[in-house]
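As a warm-up, study this chain.
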Amino acid sequence: MAVYEYAEAVTDHGFVYMDTPGYDPVSVTGQVAGGASLVCFTTGRGSAYGCIPSPSIKLATNSALYERQGDDIDVNCGEMLDRDIPAADMGRRIFDEMLRSRRRRDQVKRSAAARTSSPPGSSAPPCDGSGQTQLRHGSSR
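Now compare it with the structure written out below.
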């Protein structure tokens, strides 16, 4: 295990710890600056942090929060208490969500690359005029 200062580039593999401020957006911004390519963000109060450079998977620590903010939360970890879901099963759900998030990010990158390398008049993915590719995908829940 290694310990890093705030926003320091992480060079080790495996579990590392970064000394960050306690304020959620500032904390995660430092982790992303240090090289995090995916963030699993736990919340019990409803913070729904998102970050363009690194997808953020929101994990509700309780079912009441998930019911109130289901559109902003990816995984309801409160089911571990409410429905006796074993930790290993919840860990698998979180891992599966991480893989889905990575696939979505790769899909966006491929679409952007195809759009920028398509010759004029070719059938590139539709854009909304801002240069952003319009992607449609269903809910992962």
